[in-house]
Amino acid sequence: MTGELPAFFRDGNVPAKVVRTAGGGVTAFRLGPDGGWTERPELARELVAGPAAGRLDREEFLTFVERERGRLSGTGPLFDLYARIAAAEEGSPTARALRRTSFILFETQLQQRGDPGADPSLATEGDDPRVRAAVSTAVLSARLEPILRALAADDAALRELRPREADYAWVFVRGTVALARRRYERAWDAGIGFRRPVGRPRVRIHLAPAGALVDDNALSRPFPGGYRSVARRLVPTRVWAAWRYHSPGATAGLSYDGLVWCDDHWAFFPKPYRVLTSG
């Protein structure tokens, strides 16, 4: 079986995808009649070896899944969000946890707007970035905390967050993409330098869209002040996270920033105000 995975297909009139398993094998998933994914490992080879006309690129696949989910269950406010998460690569428990958290982020955005039945595009396009990212910190923190604990203790969890090739164009404005890619790739190759928060079991999380980091406001204050110097070089609708590991009863601790939501996964771009402005 050849070709880059994951790979996306139209199996008859049903969305299907072929992914690599955590153990290095290959399996397939097909959209079921309930709108959920059903594992069908026997289809993997058949799909990859099938007619090229049946293969879809990622965006075609997402559109196809959204339409079919809407047909199966009615066009609900969250069905397109399920599609984005479903398109993410299968992998380790950490990767699955990241996708679950990513879904909670968008679900909470809709709820925060006070209109759970709104068109799903309201959660992802056309709004003031500050409104779009006004998420419930309490709900999201409960989902993020185990992921950040894993990040603090597990090198594999950190590797999962290395930016993918396409992420740079999602996160940085056009004139900054090449510079960001060059400098962050160099930093990741050298070791991103994540300091383990030993003896600090609590986590405090803050979220803000890049568009809110331009000036002083309630969303930007928990982030390092350096973000204001580079905020206009970041795509304004991307949600960034800053967090602090601390001991019980303490407010001081080890602070981190740079976790960015990229539609179906998180990527780690720590301290862009240093990376983008250094010599």
Explain this structure.
- This protein has 279 residues and is of the alpha+beta class.
- It has 2 domains: 7-91, no CATH class; 129-275, no CATH class.
- 37% of the residues lie in helices and 18% in strands.
- It has helices at 44-49, 58-73, 79-86, 93-112, 129-132, 137-153, 155-160, 167-171, 177-190, 227-230, 272-275, and strands at 7-11, 14-20, 26-31, 37-39, 55-56, 202-209, 239-246, 253-261, 266-268.
- The strands form 2 sheets. Strands 4-3-2-1-5 form a 5-stranded antiparallel sheet.
- The longest helix is centred in the middle third of the chain and has 20 residues, at 93-112.
- It is globular.
Please give a quick description of this structure.
The protein has helices at residues 44-49, 58-73, 79-86, 93-112, 129-132, 137-153, 155-160, 167-171, 177-190, 227-230, 272-275, and strands at residues 7-11, 14-20, 26-31, 37-39, 55-56, 202-209, 239-246, 253-261, 266-268. By secondary structure, it is an alpha+beta fold.
Amino-to-carboxy terminus distance: 45 Å
Radius of gyration: 19 Å
Strand content: 15-25%
Q: What is the general shape?
A: globular
Number of strands: 9
SS content category: alpha+beta
Count the helices. How many?
11
Stretches with pLDDT under 50, minimum 5 residues: 74-90, 106-139
Mean of all residue-level pLDDT scores: 74
Helicity level: 25-40%
Could you outline the blueprint of secondary structure elements for this entry?
Blueprint: E1 7-11, E2 14-20, E3 26-31, E4 37-39, H1 44-49, E5 55-56, H2 58-73, H3 79-86, H4 93-112, H5 129-132, H6 137-153, H7 155-160, H8 167-171, H9 177-190, E6 202-209, H10 227-230, E7 239-246, E8 253-261, E9 266-268, H11 272-275
Helix pairs in contact: 2-3, 3-4, 4-6
